Amino acid sequence: MPDAKKDTPHYQGHRQRLKEKLARNARSLADYEILELVLASVLPRRDTKPLAKDILDRFGSLKEALMARPDRLDEFKGVGEGVKAHWHLLQEVHARLGEASARRGETLSDPADVARAAMARLGNKGAEEFWAAFLDSKNRVIAWEQVSKGTINATPVFPREILATALRLEAAGVILAHNHPGGDPTPSAEDVRLTERIRETAEGLDIRILDHVVVTDREFYSFSEFGRL
After folding, report:
1. Cα 173 to Cα 28: distance, rounded to the nearest angstrom
2. What is the pLDDT of residue 149?
């Protein structure tokens, strides 16, 4: 008669203990143990402890690991499309939670509100993306939309497209946002020129450009806070 205990993979008992530990006191789990359980949800028949430790060693922290672009996981043996799809899912959950302040009907009263939404949505992207929050006369969000997507250091933005959207939505104000994949939120000379062009065009349409925030995954720069709008 086969020995069921002997046939059970050694990591199954370990994984069950981790789940019990999670239920009792989630904060007691080490970062690699959290990552083990994340990986186990898509690799249930594999011991995910070595992989979790390898990923953490490579990226340096749990946050950096979970926010890594999915294609960067290709270097790890045994990571396939299922794991990468799971990473996309986790990052989309993170982005949507971070975008709570930019949801329709919310009132924006601080540049940090849009900055948080932009950091969650764009901070870990490998290419520049330009987004905008369109607001009514009471600074309530009408829409939070992608305007354009570009390369690692540039994205084509046409002021007329942003303002055409603002007119279509009957927006009274706009907050611009884009990311710098290089890790420095300081606006470039082109960022400054573009912001000024959009502001000047918007004035003629009686639309206010309230701010332009430039974000990375950790920091942001607000044109408004630095007196540049």
Report:
1. 46
2. 83
